[in-house]
Specification:
Layout (H helix, E strand, L loop, with lengths): L1 E2 L2 H42 L11 H25 L2 H16 L9 H5 L3 H17 L7 H17 L2 H33 L3 H5 L2 E5 L7 H11 L1 H12 L2 H18 L10 H6 L1 E5 L1
Antiparallel strand pairs: 1-3, 2-3
């Protein structure tokens, strides 16, 4: 069987890119239909009128959303004004704003965190903010009044469906980024197991052992690990929140991209093929 160089592999890569793009669009379409429906149901609860794909951009929805938001802010302000002076309320507001703004930071994001998002997320954020107010230890702001306000804020968050819509909105946005990664890794894994992709199959190409001696699947799995190491380490970084995996992922991108240029050499093998002992062959 003949080894295939970059000239024949590029058309196959182009076909694979088209196939991956179509798979990503289909996957995102399904997710938007399902996840978007859940998000719109939560939004309907939050603003009190039905929200769907047909009216989500309408003036009626956003006007009602603005009205409900203003109403919630007014009720929050009333809760502050009942027990605290304007200066105390402003002091507490600054602390709460800083806490809420920094509650979701990049070093917190992990698969466990994203999958576990629920209504408790908002309660935890509220607790963190009011704990910071108490920790400021101002004698003129009694802890018991702060705790009473804490519970009232939780009631408002539940009444206006903030506890439902915020976690789902975060999950929805994050999974829009994760799904394409899953599709790409899954597509590559099929190639590792079968030695074929849609592009290679259409052009009569396949991945086999370079020495043509023994089963190729273990070698193809090693090839997969090297070729997709940037994404695999990125997933590990998300799962473990360890900065070292972020750094390794970034370095892997450079190594894999530079290693792909080795296909123009006489051996017609990229770096991942050299490491795994594989070659792309005309079958």
């Amino acid at each position: 069987m003949e080894r295939v160089g970059i000239g024949r592999r590029l058309p196959a890569a182009l076909l694979d890119g088209i196939a991956i793009g179509i798979l990503i669009l289909i996957s995102l379409g399904i997710y938007v239909a399902v996840g978007g429906t859940r998000l719109m149901l939560a939004a309907s609860d939050a603003i009190g009128i039905p929200v769907n794909l047909n009216n989500v951009q309408s003036d009626e929805v956003w006007t009602e959303f603005a009205r409900e938001s203003e109403l919630m802010v007014e009720q929050l302000s009333e809760q502050f004004e009942d027990d605290f002076t304007q200066e105390q309320a402003e002091f507490m507001g600054e602390i709460l704003e800083q806490t809420f703004t920094g509650y979701v930071t990049p070093d917190q994001l992990s698969l466990e965190f994203i999958m576990g998002l629920d209504s408790n997320f908002v309660d935890d954020a509220i607790d963190t903010g009011f704990d910071a107010v108490i920790a400021a230890d101002r004698e003129d702001i009694p802890a018991d009044k702060v705790n009473e306000l804490r519970e009232e804020v939780k009631v408002l968050a539940e009444r206006f469906a903030v506890a439902q819509i915020v976690p789902r909105a975060i999950q929805f946005a994050v999974w829009l980024l994760i799904i394409p990664v899953i599709v790409v890794l899954g597509y590559g894994f099929v190639e590792a197991i079968s030695g074929r992709t849609i592009g290679k199959l259409m052009l009569g190409l396949g991945i086999e052992r370079a020495d043509d001696d023994g089963p190729a699947t273990p070698n193809r799995l090693l090839r997969y690990a090297v070729k997709y190491s940037p994404l695999l380490f990125a997933v590990l970084a998300l799962a473990t929140r360890l900065p070292v995996f972020v750094a390794i992922s970034a370095i892997s991108w450079i190594v894999v991209l530079v290693g792909a240029l080795m296909m123009v050499a006489p051996g017609k093998k990229a770096l991942h093929d050299h490491v795994a002992g594989t070659a792309v062959l005309k079958l």
